[in-house]
Every structure is written in structure tokens, then in C-alpha cells.
Amino acid sequence: MTTGAPTRSTAPEPLERDEDGQRLGALLWRPGPGWRAVSSAVLGGGIGPRSWVLNAQVAHGYTRTDPDAHLADLARRAGLHGPGVGLMTAAEVTRPGAASDGGVDAVATAGIEVRGWAAAPGPAVPGPQAPGTINIVAFVPAPLTDAALVNAVATATEAKVQALLDAGHDCSGTPTDAVCVLAPEPPPGGPAEPFAGPRSLWGARLARAVHAAVGAALPRPGVS
């Protein structure tokens, strides 16, 4: 496994903008055509062809109730066209965690001010929530079936939780964590990997890359 910036077309481009009197960053991936993504993002979520991914930092205390429209506007301002994925976080995106394993590249940004356990008791919170957020973007170099893409999200999430526990954080994540996994589109009539669980070939590599990337992005307990 190697840590540091991803290689090839999967390396993110840093962006900056002025918004509401603050200087805010973003990470932009431009893999281009020929990729499919599965994502829980508010913009471009679901499964389908995606040619770019934008992970945009927003201010603490973010109050907009239209994050999808906000991200679409940021994408237009960055000159992006076609289908893409937009994520946001209040975390500092200029210091992401990144790792690679066997051809899989993963980048994570991590804000964990608002965190807890997924199965904690209590009522749901309606509407958008505070964007503390751990965002994960990963590239798998092998075509994956729809089922394998969904499996990849589960694998990446398991690896994220493992990284949180290994770093000493007593939580499974934040209420707004998001993930995006991209893989090449299968050739017409061609094969695609049917599995991406943590013991499959590509799922194991994805898990290790995400675990290392999230671990590198996380603040240590007691460290601001």
C-alpha cells in the first residue's frame, strides 16, 4: 500500500473560491468519460455514468437548504459539464487523506465535530443537517456490476468505521457522511466484476485504501 496523492487521472485538483467573506477550498476530479459511479451524494447520487466529482468545502454553520443547487452552481463556475457528483463538507479539504492499494485510489476528507453511532436511539432530524462530514472518493480500475458497486459502498463504509475505531474515536461516523466509488464502464457485452465485498479481490483493495485514507484524514482524539 502507498499513501499520498492518487496517481493517473484519479488525482484531485485543488480549487479555491471566496464565499460569504471566507476563502473555501474544493477538490475536483476530472476522470472524463468512460466511468460509472455509485454515490450517496446530494448531487449526482445513485448509479450511472459520471465524468467529474467535486468535493466542496462550506463554512461551519452552513444554513442553505438547497445543497444540490449550490453544488450545481459551483460545478458550473468550475466549467464542468455533463453528469457528475457533488459532495460538500465543513472539513478542511486542502489536507485530505489519500492512499492506494493494488490500483485502487481513495481520498477522504474528515470533519467529525458532529458524530455518533448509526443505531443511536432518538428521532430522525428532518431536512439537511450540519455538514461536518466524512467524504470518501475512490476509484477502482476494474468494471463492476451494479450489485458490486453497491457492495463497494458497504465495503468502503465498513473500512471507514474501522478507521474511526482504530484512531480512537467512539463513533461510526457523522450524520452526513457520503461516499462515491467510480469504476470503468464495462465494454458492450463485456465482463464486469460481480463482487466488491471486503474479501473479494477489488473489495479488499478498496477496503485497505479507504481505511488508510480515512485514517490519514482523521484528527486524533484530543487534537483540534
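the 2nd protein, sequnce then structure:
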Amino acid sequence: MSRILVTGSADGLGRAAADSLLSAGHDVVVHARNQERAADLDALVGRGAHLVMGDFTERDAVRRIAAELNDAKPLDAVIHNAGVWSGPAVMPVNIIAPYLLTALLRGPRRLVYLSSSSHFGGRPSLTGVDWQGRSAGSYSDSKLFVTTLAAAVARLRPGVLSNAVDPGWVPTRMGGPDAPDDLELGHRTQEWLASSDEPQALTTGGYWYHHQRLEPHRAVHDEVFQGQLLEALAEETGTAL
């Protein structure tokens, strides 16, 4: 049994992953951004899941969640599932929050970051990025950044299994009802990477789609770009990885 945090687990892929991991006997920590969203997790909490709350657009809330989790039973894995598609929350939620949690949480030896095929359209440039969300952010850029973060963590923390997953375009609240990919397949790979002892699941630095390791955007494994991204995030947040 592993203790696994799933961020953004009130609905969609996060909810499905948390539900499945709980059914498999794991000790699951679910996350909602506020009390209203937390009510949607009552069924999972009733089955034994632990709940943390905090709005990922607020850095102090992310820090508070990290402190709360560091004071509790150590985590074995984190699935960085929380994400937004558009608007000013894109950079704070999609890259700042997972970066801060990665920097601040002690203990997890498996980290899974939710990427997207949209990362191929991202720009490997940090010029003019609005990290604080004062204006609308680029979803494609945010997913390129978080995929690069996953690869950088894999390189810099050899004792940690760090991977990125493209869940596909699935019919969730974000993806919309007409999304063509399979919702079930959309959450299985991140669960597998977070908990399985199969040899492939014990690898690191991968970009995965439906249990297949694929080649990401060429900037993802560029160590110069990784360094620039980590330096920018450390300066922006005041927190080094």
C-alpha cells in the first residue's frame, strides 16, 4: 500500500484516479480548492481518503498544503493532476503549484505530472511569461514547462521516479463531452506510474501516453532549457528545487 496525493481530485481524471487507487487499497490524499468543491469528495473521504484544501492560484495556500502534508504520514507518490485550460490561472495552477509542491514536499519517491499533447505547441522561451496570472496564460506553454519540470526532476533527483503523462483528450469538464479519447485509459497510466512495481513503471524521465513511452518536445530534455526554467521558477517563488 502506498500513500498517494492526487491534486485536483474533485472531478474528472483526478477523481477517477483517486477512486481507482482507493479501491486498490492505497492510502489516498485527495485535494479540492475550496469547501464547496470538497463536498464533491465526501464519498471518497467516507471510504477512507484524507482531504487537503487550498486554491492553487494562491502560493500561500500551496505552501500551507505542503506544510500540512509534511507534518503527516510521509507520501510515497504525488500525481500532479490539477490543471486549468484557459484564463489567468493557467501558469499559477499548471506550473507554479506543482513546482512549489515538488520543492517543498518531503518524502515522495514517485512524481507524476499531467502533460498534454498540446505541449508540442508550446514555446521553449521564458521571455515575458506572466507567472503570477495577471493575464491569461498559454496552456500549451504551461504544459511544455511542466513536462520539462518532470524531466529536470528525473535528472537532478536520481532517487526519485519522475514522469509526465499525456492522458489524451478525454470527456471531462475540461475536455468537454465530445472529446474523442477514452476516459478510462486517461487515468490508468498515472495510477500505474504512481503505484506499480512493474519494471517499466519503475523508470524515470519519461513522457507517457496510454502506457507507451513517447518522445516529447525536443526542449524537454534540453538541459540548458531545464536550467533556465528552474532558475526562473526559483526566482519567481523564492524557493529553490
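The longest strand covers residues 27-32. The first helix runs from residue 12 to 23.
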